[in-house]
Amino acid sequence: MSSDFSDKLLQFEAFFFDGDGVLYKENTILPGAKELLTILEEKKKKIFVLTNNSTKTREEYVEKLRNFGINVNINQILTSAYLTAKYVSETFPRSKIYVIGEQGLKQELERFNLEVLNNWEEKDSEDPFDFELRSVDIVITGMDRKLTYVKLARAMNILKNKQVRFIGTNADVTFPTPFGFIPGGGAMIDILEKLSNRKIDTIIGKPKPLMFNEALKSASVKNNETIMFGDRLETDIVGAKNVGINACFVLGGASSLSDLEKIAKTFYPDIITNSLSDLVHSL
């Protein structure tokens, strides 16, 4: 970490944080997270959490962070589930949707008055074809820890219809936990692309610019007044740099130092830190 950069850290007006792997791992807060956010709040900085995790609603993330002793309001949280629901409601209103994902994603879609056709927990005891496959307009995918054979069979057959839109909340193939990695939302996309013999039409989450631009708009700040803290190079860091936002690469999460060789040098992070604790000590 550059000492010159850490000296200038507080010159930024807005601080964007990834959630999983940066602030916490599942239900465990990571070292330095609460302390750094407290310092930034005292300095009247603008704080936003930008997460590709589509399994929870924004309200659930507010509660999750509050349980860690971090107080943010719902407008400081941007999730791939919320932004997917917002995008679909504005671009394809009155759509009928089939979801590979969890209840948080379904709830966000329904809050935008979108019709989720499978708003129950589907079980493998169900007949895959006992469903109105032809009534679906859009298949939306996110991380799904209750993925079943019947869900895959239904989504596969729905996507055979080329008129059906195929939208992903995010393309993160893996998801970090305190015990190791598990399949993420991108894994669901990969499976369905293979089964349906087609490519996804749209991906909403990082590294796509939508989430970053939405946060910049909400914070009323310029790109160069902002820094993004992320643990996944190909989404958090590349995505931020691609829209002109400064980036801090936090080690110990999804990516490692050796992964830097996989991205172009123009996307290299401005700062690298072992943990948020190191930044707290530098301040």
Automatic annotation (TrEMBL):
<dbReference type="GO" id="GO:0005737">
    <property type="term" value="C:cytoplasm"/>
</dbReference>
<dbReference type="InterPro" id="IPR036412">
    <property type="entry name" value="HAD-like_sf"/>
</dbReference>
<keyword id="KW-0378">Hydrolase</keyword>
<dbReference type="Pfam" id="PF13242">
    <property type="entry name" value="Hydrolase_like"/>
</dbReference>
<protein>
    <submittedName>
        <fullName>HAD-IIA family hydrolase</fullName>
    </submittedName>
</protein>
<dbReference type="Pfam" id="PF13344">
    <property type="entry name" value="Hydrolase_6"/>
</dbReference>
<dbReference type="GO" id="GO:0016791">
    <property type="term" value="F:phosphatase activity"/>
</dbReference>
<dbReference type="InterPro" id="IPR006357">
    <property type="entry name" value="HAD-SF_hydro_IIA"/>
</dbReference>
<dbReference type="InterPro" id="IPR023214">
    <property type="entry name" value="HAD_sf"/>
</dbReference>
